[in-house]
Amino acid sequence: MKNLSLVLNIILLVAVSVLFYLHFSGEKSESQQEPSMIESAEYSVAYINADSVLSSYDFFKEMQEKLQEKGQKLEDEYKSRAQGLQKEVNDYQRNVNSLTIGQAKAVEENLMKKQQNLRMYQESLSQELIKEESKINQELYEKITSYLNDYSKSHGLQMVVKYNQGSDVLYASDSMNITNAVISGLNEAYMKEKEVGTEIKSETDTTAVK
Prior knowledge:
GO molecular function: unfolded protein binding
Low-confidence stretches: 4-8, 10-41
Distance between the termini: 44 Å
Mean pLDDT: 81
Largest sheet: 2 strands, parallel
CATH architecture: 2-Layer Sandwich
Order of helices and strands: HHHHEHHHEH
InterPro entries: Chaperone_Skp, Skp_dom_sf
Number of domains: 1
Number of helices: 8
Family: Belongs to the Skp family.
Keywords: Coiled coil, Membrane, Signal, Transmembrane, Transmembrane helix
CATH topology: Protein Binding, DinI Protein, Chain A
Coiled coil: 57-124
Helix content: over 70%
CATH superfamily: Skp domain
């Protein structure tokens, strides 16, 4: 799931160069520094801890759990087929001396074909999981960016950056930390979304019964 844990690197704009410009511009004279300070005051910046958002966002946790369950189910299906093929191989090896050359060759060709089909099946399962993970990544991206867009507008923010170990932001005041507020807002929005989905499903089921 490492791709999921890195998805906010795509979502959040890290704009340290802009901040440095606002802080260091106009160093030639004292009269030039004052407009720079006024200009920087016009920009409201906040940050979130990406790891905390992912670990506390109910949507992400539920999707991660579902993906893991699906992965385990597909793995069990593959193991069952692989064990079945291994049994056939063992039976062939045990009885090969009682077969004619033609019969042995026919069994071997059949086993090789089944082995090839098993590899193709394994690849299809991997592609299925990759596709599912990509779908979750896209949905996660859309949910978080949409919420941050609305949050920024309502709180007068021009920029939200990712601030945690490994990010390009070296220091940020705790007063700029909106992580908890974002987590709370995301979970509240997701809960409402689930409630609406449940109501629609209930109405659909009722209509179907009638």
